[in-house]
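Researcher: Re-running this chain for the archive, since the previous output was lost when a drive failed. Same request as before.
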Amino acid sequence: MTLNLPKADGKAEFDRIRAEAFRLRGGIWTALFLAILAVARPTVTTVLVGALPVLLGQALRCWAVGCIVLYRGERVKAQRLVTWGPYSICRNPLYVANGLIGLGWGIMAGPLALSLFFVVFVALYGFLIVPWEERFLSETFGKAFNDYRKRVGAFWPKIWPPRMSSGPFDYSVIWNSEKHSMLVTVVGSSLLLSRLWW
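Model: Regenerated structure tokens:
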């Protein structure tokens, strides 16, 4: 069996794979959760410990979406380059938040689920989605994004303590756009909790 990875001159094909990963990220996240649920072997302790990163992740999502306003869709888009709030700490706080939620679910579900989550998360976000988005941002915002990328780390601060900056925040986005993610987080956590009994 041979693995057909894109060749060095297959940049267009790899870009197509990245674009598809971005477009399908919600479905991939759902499939990953279902795999975690299938292998879950939670205990009361793992559920309690895992709940903390889940709550932190959802709180970070709410903070991040109020800053960017426009974030849902099958194609990469941006009305403005957001560099304040959680975006002044790391360039991808929504994905860090997803990582925290997934980490919490993995802890709840047990070591096999946690390993599965880690491998898929790093491959999906680290190698496919984030490079695809950041190329778009570089092409769209040019020097402003490239300067921002030099100052702020992709997933964690480049300097400690991080320098925080403030900017516009729209609370209505949390209810209008984030309620779906909050519902998914509650339902997913509840399903993992229910695995204590089946």
